[in-house]
From TrEMBL:
Keywords: Transferase. Residues 37-175 form the Glycosyltransferase subfamily 4-like N-terminal domain. This is Glycosyltransferase family 4 protein. It comes from the Bacteria. Residues 200-354 form the Glycosyl transferase family domain.
């Protein structure tokens, strides 16, 4: 089989959508080496996470030539469909909620939809962005022969918000970056701890500091903990204006000195930061999947997260759950986890069994099944 991918973020993004794109191409080209994979991207680059994949003999990269080099957006949305290599494809897979217009009728079309948060929570986005994102997702899902949702929650949102026939939707989960499988030595952990001036024990939260991630509620919960249980909170992620609400909440509750912000932490240091945490807490209001939960479980850290949304899918029984609007519930689960060593071990063990379904060979097989449909 010859599969083409819309691969812009494969080359340009080194967080969520880019990690997903590389995970998919790496898994498929590695576990199904007899198939051929063509990556279509308006921009290409060399990078340690990219080069080992694109150097494989069954992977080809196509970028715009001629006048399209100056009209890369047009090439990605329309011109790529006219490239000579497209005629040889069996399947074209849009990895980030988009498909180009004008793909030949004989090519089967697949699109991955990660989330529709911008429709569910439009107040967190500019109105023009909501309109553009929704139009692109609707067009892609309508043109696609199969739609891949990364969770049951996202699949339901595709039906509810875009009115797509549920019979054409397949749920294929995503996995975490392979970096989280490595066990960091004590010496390397100590170096990272010193680099970021981390305490010996801490509660960890990872994600952009934005209202939907709900970190101020976590601050309220920590303030409710008995002083002999309370630990500093390390927040890893890009800052937005919402950071001021987090700091203000901590100041009002008298624990401002317990907050440690890491806005520029190297991704290479993430495993050491995760593995030294006592507990990972993710009180988000809503996610398409919640990949940090899988990262924490891969890192051997007990997890507390929110009820509702997709969080049960991502963490299963390997986590404790609390209403994200109830700081008292969150505080209760924190107290249980921090005081009970046996519970922490059980959560980690159960979580690791749960995330076996997110491993590369499993996901590669599920994608192959979708293509063969």
């Amino acid at each position: 089989m010859h599969i083409g991918f819309e691969a812009k973020r494969f080359f340009t993004n080194f967080t969520g959508l880019g990690n997903y794109a590389r995970f998919v191409v790496d898994a498929l080209s590695g576990f199904y080496p007899h198939d051929h994979y063509t990556l279509y991207s308006p921009k290409t680059r060399s990078h340690p996470e990219i080069d080992p994949i694109v150097r494989r003999s069954n992977v080809q990269v196509v970028a715009p030539t001629g006048g399209y080099r100056y009209l890369k957006g047009l090439w990605r949305s329309w011109g790529v469909s006219r490239h000579d290599t497209v005629r040889a494809l069996d399947v074209y897979h849009g990895l980030s909620q988009e498909l180009p217009a004008g793909l030949p009728a004989g090519i089967k079309k697949v699109v991955t939809v990660h989330d529709l948060i911008y429709i569910r929570y439009p107040q967190f986005y500019k109105p023009v962005d909501v309109a553009i994102y929704k139009a692109k997702a609707k067009a892609a899902c309508t043109r696609a022969d199969r739609v891949i949702a990364i969770s049951q929650q996202t699949a339901q949102d595709i039906v509810d918000f875009l009115h797509i026939d549920p019979r054409k939707i397949d749920v294929v989960y995503q996995g975490s970056h392979p970096i989280f499988k490595q066990i960091v030595s004590r010496e390397a952990q100590a170096q990272v701890r010193q680099k970021y001036d981390l305490p010996g024990r801490y509660i960890l939260n990872v994600g952009t500091l934005e209202p939907r991630k709900n970190a101020h509620q976590l601050v309220k919960a920590i303030a409710l903990l008995p002083k002999d249980v309370r630990l500093p909170l390390v927040l890893v992620g890009r800052a937005t204006a919402y950071k001021e609400e987090i700091v203000r909440t901590a100041r009002e509750r008298g624990i401002e000195d317990q907050l440690i912000f890491l806005h520029q932490a190297s991704f290479q240091d993430f495993p050491a930061i995760y593995q030294q945490a006592e507990v990972f807490v993710y009180p988000s209001l809503f996610e398409g999947f919640g990949i940090p939960l899988v990262e924490a479980i891969e890192s051997g850290v007990p997890v507390i997260t929110s009820t509702g949304s997709c969080f049960q899918e991502a963490a299963g029984e390997g986590a404790l759950y609390a209403d994200p609007h109830r700081e008292d519930e969150l505080a209760q689960q924190l107290t249980r986890t921090l005081q009970d060593v046996t519970l922490r071990s059980q959560l980690v063990e159960t979580g690791r069994k749960h995330i076996q379904q997110f491993q590369p060979p499993v996901i590669a097989q599920r994608l192959q099944e979708v293509y063969h449909k």
